[in-house]
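Example is below:
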Amino acid sequence: MKNELTLFDTMSGRREPFRPRHPPRVSMFVCGPTVQSEIHVGNARTYVFFDALARYLRHLGFDIFYLMNITDVDEQVTQAAARAGEDPLEYSKRVISSLIRDFEALKIAVSRFEPVSHHVEEAIRQVGSLIDKGYAYEADGWVYFDTAKFSRWGRLSHQSKRDLSLRPLELSQSKRSLNDFALWRPEVLIDGRWKSPWGLGSPGWHIQDTAVTIPILGTQYDIHGGAYELVYPHHEAEIAQAESLTGKRPFVRHWVHTNLLKTKGQKMSKSLGNVLTVKDALRTCTANELRFTLLSTHYRREADLAGLGSAKRRLEQMRRTAVELGGKEDGDGGSLAQFERALNDDFDSPRALEWAERSLRAASREVSREKASALAASAIRGMRILGVDLLEGP
């Protein structure tokens, strides 16, 4: 098995060799969207990246199981459903169906989607266990995680105790510390729909993810991904919950985070009202063009949607050259060594795309038809590994 892949690990703050727990099996969890509305292209940047990473891991010979939760238990969902005059869970089912169609349109293959609402009983069990172990406490119908009991709080986000003191969570007089976070809420989320030992309520945002992952992936797994803005407090809280519940560490071997996608220099977000939904984007470009654009900037750098036009032109030239040279992907093709070298280096997809472009330009200048076909075939094959098909129509 080829395996020289290194990935930047948020926990260690450096590039680390990829070492799954039980090769060739790889378990990967990526935080999915909150379904108050359709996903936008900023969300898609994260999901396209992790899909491309999963495809490359399969190319390297790994058997990957890719799990994604869907947050349908959230006050934003409740509020959106109220505006639409619908029951929150019925509303979220409709949005989830739309979400899955968007994923299919973008050629994103997730092994398993898990709506959080299917895992509330597990969340209640985990909250009760954290109370029993002394890591959580009840206060006025709420249950909070006691961050003072977890010595590694702040390690993922590399924050000192002083740093953490300046970033209080969920202001409340009932909490022992401003950094304690809610595990159970008596109100707000789905209007307190579920019965629990602490009264009617809903699980907090952070416990929802461990309620999904621990029963399916186990107490420890290989890759946890998401957007960089989730590092604190969300992923920090997941580590505290999971390691306190199980007594096992590390909870996750590799923490991988994507940076922001901006539009005209501003973060793309629903709260700012400057979003471009995936559906709207795919009315003016193809899935290949959008994937190519999103992979043209390294996943740890900020990207801007302003590059879409340039990326579309680059991809069209590549597509024309591939078709003109016979449009055939040979089973062996030419060498993928430089392509693999780029992706093995912290998944440098821009460099891998540039290699494919250079290969096609070299193929177009090649006198030998046989050599030209081999060069073109290797570029076609490499691009397909990333989920971009040079032989699809414009």
About this structure: The first strand starts at residue 6 and ends at 9. The chain has two domains: 20-261, 307-385.
